[in-house]
Design goal:
Number of domains: 2
CATH topology of the largest domain: Multidrug-efflux Transporter 1 Regulator Bmrr, Chain A
Strand content: 15-25%
Shape: elongated
Mean pLDDT: 84
Oligomer: single chain
Order of helices and strands: EHHEEHHHEEHEHEEEHEEE
Radius of gyration: 29 Å
Low-confidence stretches: 269-286
C-alpha cells in the first residue's frame, strides 16, 4: 500500500504550490522524505503535512525564512512556542502602529475645524516637584516614564494636588534634543534624588485638548498651531502639557485626555476661537 505522496498530491493537501515546495526544499525548511535518484521526483510522507502547514502560516505572517528554520530546528516545544510568540508580539505592535497611523491620516484627510475647541488661559506661577533634563527626542518617552515613576514613588496619591504636567523646550522639536521638565503639583514639594523644587513662571496659553492615545498628538499640535497663527501672537517658551488622564491613570488609551498649552501674548481680552480676529504671528518654531 503506497504511503508516500507525490509533490503534486502534497501540494494539493497542503495548499502549497509545487514551486513553493521546491523553494522550501532548497532552503532546507521542508525536505522530501525521498527523492527518486533517476527521475528527481520528490515524495512526501503524510506526517509532514502539519510541518508544511506550520511553515505556510509562519510565512503568511512574514516570518523570515531564517527564523522559520530556527523554529523548526528547536527540539523543545516550549522554546519553539516562545519564538513564535515573540514574532506574534512584534506583529501585534506593528498592527497597533498601523492602526494609529491610519487613524491619523483619516483625521488629516477629513479635517473638521469644529472639533478643535481652544481656550485662552492664564496660568499662575506654581511651585512643584519636578525632574528636569536635557533629552534626545528619540529617548524622550523612556526618560518621561522613568522621571514620572520617580515622582510617583516620592509623592503618593494623597500628597498630590493636581494632574501631572510637562514643559518641553522648542529645541526638543526643532533640533531633536532639548530640555524636558515633568512635574507634579504636591502639598509640600521637596528635593529627593533627581527631584527638584521648581518655581514654574506664570504664562498665557492657548489650550486645546487631545483625546486618546498620543500616537497622533502631532495632529492636535498642528491644529492648535494654526489657530494660534490666526488668533494670537505666538511667543517663545516651552510648550505645556497637562495630563488630565494619562497612561499612569489608566491603560486604556481611549480614556486619555492631554491638554496642550501654546504660549501666546494676548493682544486683546476679546480674542476667542470664534472671534475671527487675525493678528500677525511672531516667529514660530514648532
Amino acid at each position: 500500500m503506497r504511503s508516500a505522496l507525490t509533490i503534486g498530491e502534497f501540494a494539493t493537501v497542503t495548499h502549497l504550490s509545487v514551486r513553493t515546495l521546491r523553494r522550501y526544499h532548497e532552503a532546507g525548511l521542508l525536505e522530501p522524505a525521498t527523492v527518486d535518484p533517476s527521475t528527481g521526483y520528490r515524495y512526501y510522507l503524510p506526517d509532514q503535512i502539519p510541518t508544511a502547514q506550520v511553515i505556510h502560516r509562519l510565512r503568511r505572517l512574514d516570518v523570515p525564512l531564517a527564523e522559520v528554520a530556527a523554529i523548526l530546528a528547536a527540539d523543545d516545544p516550549h522554546q519553539r512556542a516562545e519564538v513564535i510568540a515573540g514574532h506574534l508580539r512584534r506583529l501585534e505592535a506593528e498592527m497597533d502602529r498601523t492602526r494609529a497611523v491610519v487613524g491619523s491620516l483619516r483625521r488629516l484627510l477629513s479635517p473638521d475645524p469644529a472639533d478643535l475647541q481652544v481656550e485662552l488661559r492664564s496660568v499662575p506661577a506654581r511651585t512643584v516637584a519636578a525632574i528636569r533634563g536635557h533629552v534626545q527626542l528619540d529617548g524622550s518617552l523612556a526618560w518621561y516614564d522613568s522621571a514620572m515613576a520617580e515622582l510617583d514613588a516620592a509623592f503618593p496619591l494623597a500628597e498630590r494636588t493636581g494632574p501631572a504636567g510637562g514643559h518641553y523646550a522648542n529645541e526638543l522639536f526643532t533640533h531633536a534634543a532639548g530640555t524636558m521638565t515633568v512635574f507634579r503639583p504636591v502639598r509640600v514639594p521637596r528635593r529627593s534624588g533627581r527631584i527638584e523644587v521648581v518655581e514654574l513662571p506664570p504664562a498665557d496659553l492657548a489650550v486645546a485638548v487631545h483625546d486618546g492615545a498620543h500616537d497622533d498628538i502631532d495632529v492636535t499640535y498642528g491644529r492648535l498651531g494654526a489657530w494660534v497663527v490666526a488668533h494670537a501672537l505666538a511667543v517663545d517658551g516651552p510648550v505645556h502639557e497637562t495630563y488630565r488622564v494619562g497612561p499612569r491613570d489608566t491603560p486604556d488609551p481611549d480614556l486619555w485626555r492631554t491638554e496642550i498649552g501654546w504660549p501666546v501674548f494676548r493682544l486683546a481680552p476679546d480674542v476667542s476661537p470664534g472671534a475671527g480676529t487675525r493678528v500677525r504671528a511672531a516667529r514660530g518654531g514648532r
